[in-house]
Write a structure and sequence with these properties.
single chain, alpha/beta, Beta-Lactamase, Alpha-Beta Plaits, TIM Barrel, eight-stranded mixed barrel, six-stranded antiparallel sheet, 23 strands, elongated, EAL_sf, Phytochrome-like protein cph2, Rev_trsase/Diguanyl_cyclase, PAS
Length: 613
């Protein structure tokens, strides 16, 4: 035998790929060589036993022994005679694909292919047999073990004794198309295929897409513990492969891994995932010491025949992992439709913000704070952020604040709001209506409060407008302070040194508010509306409110009661000694134009105001 099977297969692969990548007019010499190789393979296929594994021969192809073995082990001789529709495969087919090699019709063999590929492959074979030249087809087939394989068929047409046909090499390229090159695990393409299979299963069958993400692996891979990212990827893949079904684990980007598995209930899922979590909780030994991995697990249950497609399931898994990462490492998190709602809200919120920043759409609404001890005089306005939504719509904070905080855009929004709020202090129309001593209250977020440039930025804007810093009252919350207490305290002290006053907003909504009264540099306390609700009907709330007002008076803090909406509530808090009120009882938040058009310097409760207000 002049040439080995493996050398012939190599020639066919090389020549077919080279010719396919060349110009439209094929190289006749190489095409003839390719035809000769295929005819030789056809002769081998006709013998009683095809010697498919050889030691490397001393032919003219420069290949290592490993390369020759790979060529032989992953190639099948494929021959189809068009006239009698007879397909013959070499015995390597049985070894590679766990299927017998009895003579088949082309149509029968195509039934082993993926449903989307069957008609295409069969049609291309008939076309190729009728045209002199080479053809190359890629498709998916299901082997005898129930696993999807990706193959490439390189073939050349021939006409022997008036019988047209095709002869060539069937090469397994599963690792090229369905495997991650670093870990050897399945890749995203295989995940899509398995999800597609599960969706197309018997109606009502329950499955789950399980996604595991190692949230600190990227940082660890860049540390002194590992030489490179590849090293850590291989270590993790080896660990996971010991615990999960062979061939079913997929490696995804950013140290994420996936599994498609039958789903019975959450208890069964917990049993499946528990060994993985236990393994991931153990330290990895490296040449420089131990390291610990932090992980999150997201599960997306779904039923076969449901309306969800592969793209939707992958998206749901990403949302679940994102939510799980925000909730903390460990545990199993399940997809719910609420995550879609949250994601849609976040997307819309960010777009609202971007549009508002680009088109001067940050609006400063004002709600008055009234001194009941001065007959209803407006002593301050709280500046409240709104965004322009479309031509005339107004977006409330619930539509964008969360997105503003998570994206960091809160800084730009607040800069524009503060700029417009400070302008109110020097607006001649407001000065004429409300005097020269009313105060503007401005809320600070936790991101702003820990910003090292907060004080400088605030003073720059105050000087820009020529405003009096003593007429600026910054509102903070307990949770904002606790996010970065040392930095927050330093900023608050510096702000007060410039004459700016500080108010603790939503007092009573946290757990440590009393201690904050002693530790923070405060001038004002704003009592949360939750204390005010049903105050006249709940004796315990009245006792607490009375004590808080008395305590703040002793500590020389101004007190503002928020959320007052009813006349009975107003009377109750006034009887307790409250002096400043903010709430719908006097006015809702409104634009500066509406404030000037509708409010006077002194306000009566809404029930006593003229109908025009």
């Amino acid at each position: 035998m002049g040439r080995t099977v493996q050398a012939l297969c190599h020639d066919i692969r090389y020549l077919a790929d080279e010719l396919a990548a060349g110009s439209t007019s094929p190289d006749e010499k190489r095409l003839a060589h390719l035809s000769t190789c295929c005819n030789t393979l056809l002769e081998l296929l006709g013998t009683s036993s095809v010697p498919e594994v050889f030691r490397p021969s001393s032919d003219d192809i420069s290949l290592s022994q490993h390369e020759r073995m790979l060529l032989c082990e992953h190639d099948v001789i494929w021959h189809w005679q068009a006239q009698d529709d007879a397909l013959t495969l070499s015995s390597r087919w049985e070894t590679l694909y766990h299927d017998n090699v009895k003579p088949l019709l082309l149509a029968q063999w195509c039934q082993k292919l993926h449903p989307e590929d069957r008609d295409r492959v069969q049609a291309l074979c008939h076309q190729a047999a009728a045209i002199h030249g080479l053809s190359k087809i890629e498709f998916r087939l299901l082997d005898g073990l129930g696993q999807w394989r990706f193959v490439r068929l390189r073939m050349i047409s021939h006409d022997q004794a008036g019988e047209p046909g095709l002869t060539g090499v069937l090469s397994d390229i599963t690792h090229e198309r369905y495997r991650d090159p670093v870990t050897g695990l399945g890749n995203s393409s295989l995940l899509d295929q398995l999800l597609e299979d599960a969706i197309g299963d018997a109606p009502g069958a329950r499955h789950a897409l399980v996604k595991i993400t190692l949230v600190n692996a990227t940082l660890l891979s860049e540390s002194e513990h590992f030489n490179n990212t590849r090293e850590l990827e291989i270590r993790i893949a080896e660990l996971l492969a010991e615990l999960l079904p062979a061939g079913r684990l997929m490696a995804l980007p950013d140290f994420s891994y996936a599994l498609v598995t039958p789903f019975h209930d959450q208890k069964a899922m917990a049993r499946l995932v528990e060994p993985i979590q236990q393994m991931l909780s153990l330290p990895l030994e490296t040449h420089t010491g131990r390291v610990w991995l932090s992980h999150v697990v997201g599960v997306v249950p779904f039923e076969s025949g449901s309306s969800d497609d592969v793209k939707a399931l992958r998206k749901q898994a990403r949302l679940t992992i994102t939510n799980a990462s925000g909730a903390g490492v460990g545990g199993i998190h399940y997809y719910t439709d609420e995550l879609q709602t949250q994601a849609a809200r976040a997307r819309r919120g960010e777009q609202l913000i971007r549009a508002a920043l680009a088109c001067d759409g940050v609006l400063c609404f004002l709600q008055p704070i009234v001194s009941v001890s001065e007959g209803g005089r407006v002593v301050a306005f709280e500046a409240l952020m709104r965004l322009r939504d479309g031509e005339e719509g107004i977006a409330m904070p619930g539509a964008f604040i969360e997105a503003a905080e998570s994206t960091g855009l809160i800084h730009q929004l607040s800069q524009q709001l503060i700029d417009k709020a400070l302008h109110i202090l020097v607006d001649p129309a407001f000065t004429q209506r409300f005097g020269r001593d009313f105060v503007i209250n401005i809320n600070l977020s936790r991101h702003q409060l820990k910003d090292a440039m907060l004080v400088d930025d605030m003073m720059r804007l105050i000087h820009k407008h020529g405003a009096d810093p003593r007429r600026v009252n910054l509102e903070i919350t307990e949770s904002a302070v606790l996010a970065e207490p040392a930095v927050a305290l330093r900023n608050l002290v510096r702000l007060r040194e410039h004459g700016i006053s500080i108010a603790l907003d939503d007092f009573g909504s946290g757990y440590s508010s009393l201690s904050q009264l002693c530790e923070l540099p405060l001038d004002c306390i704003k009592i949360d509306r939750r204390f005010v609700m049903d105050l006249e009907r709940e004796p315990r709330k009245r006792h607490v409110m009375t004590s808080v007002i008395d305590l703040c008076r002793r500590l020389e803090f101004r007190v503002v009661i928020e959320g007052v909406e009813e006349s009975a509530t107003l009377k109750t808090v006034c009887d307790m000694g409250a002096e400043q009120i903010q709430g719908f009882i006097y006015a809702r938040p409104m634009s500066s134009k509406d404030v000037l058009g509708r409010l006077n310097a002194t306000l009566l409760p809404v029930s006593l105001q003229p109908a025009s207000l």
